[in-house]
Amino acid sequence: MINKQKLYSIALVSAAMILMLVSTAGTEPYAYISNYGNLGIVSVINTTTNTVIPTVNVGSYPYGFAVTPDGSNVDVTNSKSTSFSTVSIIDTTTNNVTATLKVGNCPNVVAATADGTNVYVS
Asked: What is the CA radius of gyration of the chain?
């Protein structure tokens, strides 16, 4: 029998991996949700109105997220893009991908530095 508390902790950590809340000065807070699968999209939800605004097209199997400290970008790992794995950089003002970076195989976790100038991918 699986310990229910342990199972709950695992589920909570998994949910945290696919949800990032971003709030920039003077704007509504948004939640960025990966739609893990080859659809390659991230859903953006306005958490004030609980409505989904248009999705953002990224690479296949989006998974890990990082938000720059100023909230201007969301970095998303695309763990199984067709010819190589990538990280998509989403501008949170426009919700458009501004850059796609090639990285190693199956990236999952991404973290932004405190000044937002670099990201690290594992």
From this structure: 15
Amino acid identity of residue 104, one-letter, is: G
pLDDT per residue over 86-107, tens digit each?
999 999 999 999 999 998 888 8
Per-residue model confidence as pLDDT tens digits over 65-81: 898 888 899 999 998 76
- Taking Cα atoms as reference points, which of 98, 109, 116, 24 lies closest to residue 57? 98
Local confidence band at 8 (pLDDT 50, 70, 90 cut-offs):
very low
CA angle 14, 17, 22 (to 5 degrees): 140
CB atoms within 10 A of CB 113: 12
Cα torsion 68, 84, 58, 30: sign:
negative
Q: Is 93 exposed, middle or buried (0-12, 13-18, 19+ CB in 10 A)?
A: exposed
Domains recognised in the chain with CATH numbers:
4-121 (2.130.10.10)
Tell me if the pTM is above 0.85.
no
Per-position DSSP letters for 14-41, written without gaps between them: HHHHTEEEE--TTS--EEEEEE-STT-E
